[in-house]
Amino acid sequence: LGVPSFCFINGLALGGGLEIALNSDYRTVSSSAAALALPEVFLGLIPGWGGAWLLPNLIGVRNALTVMIENPLKTNRTLSPAQALELGIADAMFPPARFLEESLRFADEVVAGTRKVKRPHAPSALERATVWPIAINAARKALREKIGTIAQSPYASLDLMAAAKSSTKAQGFAAEDKVLAELISGDQFRASVYAFMLVQKRQKNTPGAPDKKLAQPVTKAGVVGGGLMARQFALQLLRRLEVPLVISDVSQERVDDATSWIKAELQTLHTKGRLHSDALNKLSALVHGTTDMADFAQCDLVIEAVFEELDVKRSVFSELEQHVSPEAILASNTSSLAIGDIASVLKHPQRMVGIHFFNPVAVMPLVEVVKAHTTSDVALATAVSVVNKLRKTAIVTADTTGFVVNRLLAKLLGEAMHAVEMGTPYDVVDESVQPLGLPMGPFELLELVGLQVGAHVLATHYKAFPDRFFDSEALVTLVGLGKIYDRDPQKKIKGISSGAQALVGSGKGYSAQELRNRVHEGLADEVWRMLEEGVVESPEDIDVAMILGAGWPFLMGGLTPYLDRVGASESARGKTFHTPPIRGVS
Q1: Model pTM greater than 0.85?
Q2: Residue 358 confidence (pLDDT) above 90
Q3: Domains along the chain?
């Protein structure tokens, strides 16, 4: 412009909004500004208005990597005004009441030369020569380990930032234009936008849920069971509903352990500044532990999370029903048992509903709300209402084995273990599923969820659907061995353990492409069956479930758009899940 330019940021500055500011010479920010971020990588793009060149040259490559790549991949983490100031994205921060006045004064002083602006993180010549390439290479390695190599936009951003070390501004902008045009026309951007819009829409609307007006108020909540899952969602109920909470277990020692854990977590939130002192004291006082089912008498909602054994759960609810009112909603967190089977012992089975959380509860945004054939609209509406108040996304699913997420994961994991038993090496199995873009391979996932849990899931689905699901003797053996991988002291994978390696079958096995075809066709067939059976209403329900409950990548658009693009859905039923398929123009 020939004169200094200024940008005053008093609200959201996301993507192009922040890049407009970066194109100015100086920036101020209001302390009340909601958030600043460059979230494009999350949507399969790169900052396209100069951000990939401007930001690393303003705040250094390491800080730019955090803002442009690390934060978007952490579910779109944003910067506060104070963080933007500390990084040097903003040159000054002022309170909202005097923001415009102070910003104009700031500009006047800069133009007059009475105010010098320091850029503490601006890259020096030494940083450009040494730190810059090291940081880029380290980020590239970290990306490969964390998300694999399927995602295009993070690596495109890395390449642009690598070039920004020595390129001119004009060269950097031209390179951005070229890369952005390629990404916009590709599958991943189209799929990411579909997934983003779908998830946003489902936060406000739950297909299959009854009228919200039918939901009963919850003035007191109960949790039966004091194990890890139970105490996690008990904490969420306490924080979000802010009502008295009763938690029980079979012994006072286990009860005390659960209540102590909940109160310790509240204290941790307070220490981190996420919970005020008054709220800490209030919520801590609302927790009551017990071994006596009679203490649930005044609860409007009780959720059970005890051992996954039908008779155990039936016993819990039979006793519980003797103490709660006929209108109280009873829910199970079961992941493998039929809600209808559990409810069959109740005098009022219509009050029973499934509320299936995912681990870790505080992090995982999905809850499967399970409707048995006896479940009333009141019970279903109340369950969905509670899930929404927990700031999570509900999908309504029929009462069938595995519901949605576990059924499809059982298909994937069962195929993986079956392939090993047929003689396919572990690395070939991992290679076969890489195009799906999942955050980890099937064997890492099995170790994450627990080998015993995985074996139980496969056995449950094989029992329900023996014609198309696999049980796995090899996985049962791995439960005894306790691991699939050898790991170093930092828990990084070194290789397949000798015990796991010995379980590879003596047969020819599958090639990566053969197994990939089996996985594609098996998943497509299972999704079609779920839609035909009415497990959920639409392919969008499947996608929401797999994105939020299984970490299916946004850049794939969820499961069904991916299966459309690879031709598996059409191969299974002669048609696609989406018309037209969700893909780019290239």
Answers
A1: yes
A2: yes
A3: 6-184 (3.90.226.10), 212-398 (3.40.50.720), 405-534 (1.10.1040.50)
